[in-house]
Amino acid sequence: MNAAFLQVSGLSKSFGGNQAVRDISFEVGDGEIVGLIGPNGAGKTTCFNLITGFYTPDAGRVRFRDEDVTALKPYQMARRGIVRSFQKTNILKSLTVFENVLAGQYLVAKQPLWRTFFPGRVVRKAESEARERAAEIVRTMGLDARMNAPASLLACGELRLLEVALALAARPAILMLDEPAAGLNSHEAARFGEVLRTLPGRWVKSVLIVEHNMGLVMGVCDRVVVMNFGRKLADGRPAQVQADARVIEAYLGSAVAEGA
Q1: Are β-strands 4-15 and 18-29 bridged in parallel, bridged antiparallel, or unpaired?
Q2: From the CB of residue 108, how many other CB atoms can be counted at a distance below 10 Å?
Q3: pTM of the model as a whole
Q4: CB burial class (10 A; 0-12, 13-18, 19+) of residue 71?
Q5: Which residues pair with 15 in a beta bridge?
């Protein structure tokens, strides 16, 4: 594995009497795409929320680029380069595809208030660069033919690609995707996977993805972390995880695992 970029150590979180995440530890290396998978209710999204500051862990630490970021708020995480998507779309349907991505650059393209009223060379240069970058992101996601189309007209697969484009607009170092292939058919998921593989090293350093589409996960991920009942069950290459009897049992039941 490449040098650790994101380190999760002993994360735990309980809600009342329900321990949603129990002593989870794993790493995401520089340049890796890592999948976080598990049956429904395994604790994957809770783990995501702990990493990105939406929940405060009861125990454990999160380190990013050798900095302890456990206590930071989500906006502070984003400023450091930890950017996530959500299961529920955050697309502005009234804007075009290009306008959505352009608006997504607010973290890096914002200007002091006085420059808004007295725009000069610096502001014009920043605006031009933001527009060029937005257009390049749209093309990277394969949405160039829909550049000026209202987001409300996009198909489900195109909307998922636009969601990733919005996250890329914030210039993440690590891109965290929460079920980005939800609702996609097999063709759309395959296309999405092809785009995802092009991101590390060009647009982001690494990717951490929570996903139920096993074809997508096994096809694009360098490594897979499996959760079950809040605990880490397995961690390894896709082929290793697929052959793990504990993983088979968690998904399909003990009788199938014994047969395998």
Answers
A1: antiparallel
A2: 14
A3: 0.86
A4: exposed
A5: 18
